[in-house]
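Write out the bound-state structure for pyridoxal-5'-phosphate.
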Amino acid sequence: MRRAQPCAVFQTPHAMKRYQALADTMAAEIRAGRLPVGTRLPSVRHLTTQYGVGQSTVFRAYYLLEEWGLIRARERSGYYVAPGAMLATLATLATQTPAAAPAPLADPAPIDVSSLVFSVLDAVKRPDVAPLGSAFPSPKLFPLQRLAKSLAHATRMLDPWSTVVDMPPGNEALRRQIALRYIGMGIAQPAEELIVTNGAMEALTLSLMAVTKPGDVVAIESPCFYAALQAVEHLGLRAIEIPVDPRDGLDLDVLAEALDKHPVRACWFMTNFQNPTGATLSIEKKRALVALLAKHEVPLIEDDVYGELHFAQDRPPPAKAFDTKGLVMHCASLSKTLAPGYRLGWVAAGRFADDVRRLKLMTTISTSIPIQAGIADFLQHGGFDKHLRKLRGALLTQRDAMEAAIARWLPEDVSFVRPDGGYFLWLKLAGHIDAMQLHREALGHGINVTPGPIFSARHAYGNYVRVNFGHPWSGQIEDAVRVLGELVRGRG
Ligand SMILES: Cc1ncc(COP(=O)(O)O)c(C=O)c1O
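---
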């Protein structure tokens, strides 16, 4: 096994911490192929002497390289260049040149975003890190004890035959409860067209599989929920990005042009509290969207996981409410509203219900039967609406607290559009700020923010970050925003 020679150049550019400079220097060596996969990196003691830095500087540099996926630790043996290092370089490449937002209508292109996304998401798992980059609200906001009671009760009462009976489309009592919620939105949703899935993610992916084949063109948003990009990448599809304005949402003119010019087989859009911008389409735009797609006979995969988290009086309807042709596949879940970790989602799949049901059987067979029964029990007896009212109230308070902290600590040129629901702020920073670098630097201070480039097939939005306000206000969060402000100012 080759042993690495210490890298020759180690400069500390202005405003860059020494461990970051060291990590950058070594990352450049790995990227350039001068440290091939499997190479053992110099010992901590060696680097300490070589560069005249403290041990903690070297350790932090190695942790950073690990975070970027470039190196791996082996117990009692040291650090080695990781097998996926060349893939992981994508993540760091994106740190170097913040790209501009994409042109209004570019040609469809394959997607390659996964390694960048994984390197960012790995950091979310660290419990010591301030959760501004989390995709979830705080678990403290969910009635986990009451849910556990429903689960215990339903499991005790479970009919042994439910193992077969509750196979896709899923537990009937649960689907009836879900269908009732559609009635609350003014949608007569037949329970037969509802397929229970493992979270919304499976609902969305199965829907996409049902209406496309590899090489097809699909329209997605820009910026876009990163898992949609990954699903498109995984299924070998080509994506055409339709811009989303944080205030007005999806650009329907660009979509109309795309539908005219390209053989778009499906659209995957969020109509309420879009992730990451927070934008909600007006009722007129939802109607127009459904009509436009109906004209072209193009299915809409509608991701509505945040629709229930509205701050105004009424829930904004989904585009599904205006669908008369069965073309809208409305996907949602309880992951953000009631039961994170239970992985309970569904799709109201319209005319594609049978295809999705079969795909569900072929891929994961069934969603956990006891979980389906437990959630059905909770929806019937657990006070879901009361819980939702409390949750929305908490999120609204936290949004206001986050806004106030941002006004206190971040520079005045940081801007965002206030969302009316969900729990994300999409912050636009000054043009010269590199969000990937800020993300890495913030992690070094125990703070996680989600950098803009992971929301784009082309790693655009280089000066944006998404900030989560789904956690009750605390000293830790206030401090995190303060330090974030210092880091942003430090780059001024
Ligand atoms: C926009 C969006 N869609 C779908 C999902 C996935 O939802 P679930 O956890 O129910 O699979 C998420 C989760 O982060 C999301 O943010």
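---
The pocket of pyridoxal-5'-phosphate is lined by residues 135, 199-201, 225, 270, 275, 303, 305, 333, 335, 345 (CB under 6 Å).
The CA atoms of residues 398 and 473 lie 6 Å apart.
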